[in-house]
Amino acid sequence: MSLLLDNQFKELPHDNSVDTKLFLDAVSHLPAFIDCLGSKVFSLIKSDITGNITKIQGVYVKDPQRYATLQHILEAERDDHAKEWPKVGATLALMWLKRGLRFIQILLQSIADGEKDENNPNLIKVNITKAYEGALKRYHGWLVQKIFTGALLAAPYRSDFFKALSKGEEVKEEECLANVRHFLVNFTATVDAIYDMYTNLNAELDYSV
Ligand code: CIS
């Protein structure tokens, strides 16, 4: 059994629009997975991601037709909150959530590509660091970067990470890597589409926290 295969993202349609409900269904499993990583250090990350998801969900349920795709949400909020947009509502929540998803994408891709610290092959710190530098570091001031350093110390072993992805079962590494590669196909396409949408709508902000 694989958690990743259970929670696959759907293939995108030709116009690359992301269906809000399907997206929310897929990301809703992420906070529970963070608990499986085994350290309380991750609770801060869990609560941030949960807050993002709750905010997007809160907008969606107000009018599922109006907010049928993620792009509909951004455009509607741009009309409704011209002054504050894009630093407002679900637009802001998704801006941050997509960075967490990019982090996960780079982490999984790096593991799938076999990138390893040859001296410590059962660690995934090199993969986590690569993901952090690619997705999040530029948006973090020194204090949050210190939190990252703390989280890195609590990072799971590679074998435990695979076990968590396999819902606690011991699964052969090759099988787990095949599942990761399979999961990445639609997941990467979705994350890329969200990034493109922020660029095309000029909704990306570059401040750091
Ligand atoms: C493997 C362990 C790796 C751990 C490495 C951790 C790295 C990150 C460490 C940084 C700690 C960040 C703590 C929070 C920082 C926030 O201040 C910052 C800014 O927050 C935003 C809010 O979100 O601030 C805005 C105002 O300026 C708003 O308040 C906004 O909230 S709003 O708008 O909603 O009200 N936030 C961030 O920097 C985002 C940090 C995201 C970190 C993501 C890390 C993800 C780690 C998960 C690891 C698990 C790997 C998973 C692999 C597979 C998952 C399979 C699960 C199946 C489900 C599939 C779904 C994908």
Automatic annotation (TrEMBL):
Query: Glycolipid transfer protein domain location, by residue?
Result: 18-166
Q: What keywords are annotated for this sequence in UniProt?
A: Cytoplasm, Lipid transport, Repeat, Transport
Enumerate the subcellular locations listed in this protein's record, separating them with semicolons: Cytoplasm
**Keyword Calcium carried by entry:** no
Provide GO CC annotations from the record. cytosol; membrane
Q: From the Swiss-Prot or TrEMBL record, what is one GO molecular function term? A: ceramide 1-phosphate transfer activity
The superkingdom of the source organism is Eukaryota
Q: What does this protein do?
A: Accelerates the intermembrane transfer of various glycolipids. Catalyzes the transfer of various glycosphingolipids between membranes but does not catalyze the transfer of phospholipids. May be involved in the intracellular translocation of glucosylceramides.
Q: What is the similarity comment for this entry?
A: Belongs to the GLTP family.
Name of the protein: Glycolipid transfer protein domain-containing protein
What organism is this sequence from?
Neogobius melanostomus
